[in-house]
């Protein structure tokens, strides 16, 4: 499938989003992720979404491993190849085993620990019905506190929305990053942006770019 919106470059994205997309590609070992180079063309809306997403992951209260379980399950249920490929890489860095990642794309089994099982069943019900039964909500409460349950709802909602957007845009998984030095000009732009932001950068750029870089799973 051909993407319906082409990736933006420096001119379309602006220097901060352009540099961030290149840095994200280095972290992930891919070309600059299309989720950033395409959605970045929305400018202000993009930064608002990115800040919201970062507040849920990696800066949410759910452990990183569990947030990746949620995202991978949503990607499977919504048949999002892009989301799936992107977060399989991050999932490994966040403590998920290959077996666990593979099992998020199958019928739920009784091998999951009780907390994982409660989370995954809630994801299935949310995506399937846009609701949670009293029974499921109570089961979640045995393992997650109130804040974690609220963030779980928002995390599922965010990645369900994103899966729809990526599907409509026909975005394909990012190819491996070329290692031929072709992105050296982008690296110079990144250094310039970092230097600017150490001075008097807008709060929007500092929070969104820095927070979401961690969301890619470099740690």
Task: Give the helices and strands, then pairings.
Elements: H1 10-13, H2 15-28, H3 34-39, H4 44-56, H5 64-77, H6 81-93, H7 98-103, H8 114-129, H9 134-141, H10 146-169, H11 184-200, H12 203-215
Helix pairs in contact: 2-11, 4-12, 5-6, 5-8, 5-10, 8-9, 8-10
Provide structural commentary.
This protein is mainly alpha-helical and about 220 residues long. The protein contains twelve helices and no strands. The longest helix is centred in the last third of the chain and has 24 residues, at about 145-170.
Taken as a percent bin, the fraction of beta residues is: under 5%
Q: Helical content, roughly?
A: 55-70%
Order of helices and strands: HHHHHHHHHHHH
Structure summary, number of beta strands: 0
Structural class: mainly alpha
Biggest pleated-sheet summary: none
Quick synopsis:
By secondary structure, this protein is mostly helical. The chain is 68% helix and 0% strand.
What descriptors fit this protein?
219 residues; 12 helices; single chain; disordered C terminus; mainly alpha
